[in-house]
Amino acid sequence: MNRACLRPVLHLCAALAAIVGVSGGATSVLAQPAPGPAARTPDPAVEAARAAFESLPEADRRTIQEGLIWSGDYSGSADGTFGRQTFDAIAAFQKRAGRPATGVLSPADRAALQAGMKNARSAVGFEIITDARTGVQIGVPAKLLTGQGDNPGGGSRWQSADGRITLDTRVAPADATLATLYERNLAIKTPGRVVTYKVLRPDFFVIAGETPTGKFYSRYAAGPSGIRAFSIGYDKSVAPQVDRLVVAIANAFVPFPTAAPAAAPPPAAAAPAPATVAQGVAAAGAQAPFGTGLLVGPRQVLTGAPMDRCRAARVRDVRVQQVKGGGPYLLELAQDLDYKGAPLAVSQQEMASASVLVLAFGADGDGARLGAMAGTVEDGRTVSAPLQPGASGAPVFDRSGALAGFVGALPSNPRKVAGIVPSAPYPLLPAAEAARAFPGLSASEAKPAALGAADLVAMVRPRAVPIACAP
C-alpha cells in the first residue's frame, strides 16, 4: 500500500505535544537575505541506532515498529525504514522501561517490546482480516468492537457495545471520483465539526478532524478495482485507549490486497457543494509556512511566531526589512501589501476560560492555505487546539470575532498520532499586550453575536498572511 497515507492520516487529533517556547530578543534588522542554513552534523547516537536497526532483516524492522505502535511510542508507518521518529520511539520505550535511552534495542528490549505487543493485541482481540464486502485488508479489535454488521453506505461495520467506537469499510459508487468524494466529505455539516487535516493525492485522500465530543478519520484509496475506504470515529472519552489502535488499524489497511474487485454499490446522489472552512488540497511535496501573521497596516504584520530564529523572512513574497519586539513581533515590510482589513475588535482582558478559533496557514493546498481550528483558552496564557505546522504565531479569536491573542512558538518536531498533531496546549500571547506594545493595532467594538468558523475566516482572510523563513 502507499504508506504516505499515514503521514496525513487521522482524525484522532488529540494526543500530541512537544517543545519549544517563545524566545525574547532585541529588535533585529533583516535588510539583507542571509545565507542558507549550514549542513547539520549527524548525531552520533542516531547514526549508531540507524546502523543497528538497518542491520536487521526487513521483517524484524517492521515488527519492531509495530511493537512501538502498540507501546504507544510510534505513530508512523511500519515500513522498516529508519528515521528520527523511530529513534525517538525506541528511546522513549527504553526510558519508560528504566533502560538507557540509546535508540539501540538489545535482545532483552526486543523481547519485552514483542511481549508487550502480543499482550496488547490479545487484550483487544486485534485481527487482520480481509473484509468480504469490500475486499480490503484491515485490522479489527474484535474484543473491543463486538458488534458487526453492514455499513449502510456499502461495506462492513464494527462497533463497540456502547456505541462509542465505530469502524466502517466501504466501496465507492462506480461513477465516483476521489475529487468528488473528497469534496463531499469536506462538506459534511455537523455542529462543531472541525477538519484538522486533509490531503488529496492522485491515488488517495485523507480527512481527519474532531467534533465537540469525538474524533474521526477517513481514508479513501483509488485503484484498478475502484475506490475503497475505511473510516473510524470514536468518543473522546475513550481516546487514551483508542488513539494507538487507530495507528495500528491504519497501518494494517491495504485497499487492494488482491486483483479481485469488490462489488460497487449503486451510484450515489450528487454530492452537495463544498462548504469547508479550511480550504485547499495538499500538493505533493508542499511544505507548511514558518508561521502565520496578521496584517495591521499596509506594511506591518503582527505574529507570535519566533522571528528571532528566522534570518530572512518574507510575507507574500515581500521581504521583511525589520523585526520589532520580542513576542509578539511586529514585521516591517519592504513594500505595501494589498491591505483591505476593516478595524478589528481587540479583547482588552485576558480570557479565563473560553472557546476560540485559531486561524492559521498550512500546507493543505497548492501552497499555503488558510484554515480555522477550534480550541479553548484555559488560563489566559494557554490555548489548546489541534495545531498543525504553519500555525506558529497565528491569531486567535473569540466567538464574537474579537482578537484574543497570538499563538506562541510551536514545537519544531512534535510527536504525532498517525501523522497528525492532535489537540495540545500552546503558549498564548494576549491581544491586550500586543495592543499596548504596538498602539497601531486598530480596534473596534466586538460584535455581540457569535460568529461561525466560516464567517470568521471570511472576515479575517484579507488580513491573514503566511510567513516564510530561511532559518
From TrEMBL:
In this protein, which residues make up the domain named Peptidoglycan binding-like? 59-112
- What InterPro entries does its record include? Peptidase_S1_PA, Peptidoglycan-bd-like, PGBD-like_sf, PGBDSf
- Signal peptide per UniProt: 1-31
Please provide the Gene Ontology terms (biological process) for this protein: proteolysis
> What keywords tag this UniProt record?
Hydrolase, Protease, Signal
Does the UniProt entry include the keyword Signal? yes
* Statement: the UniProt record of this protein carries the keyword Transport: no
> Which Gene Ontology MF annotations are present?
peptidase activity
**Domain of life, per the record?**
Bacteria
Q: What is this protein called?
A: Serine protease
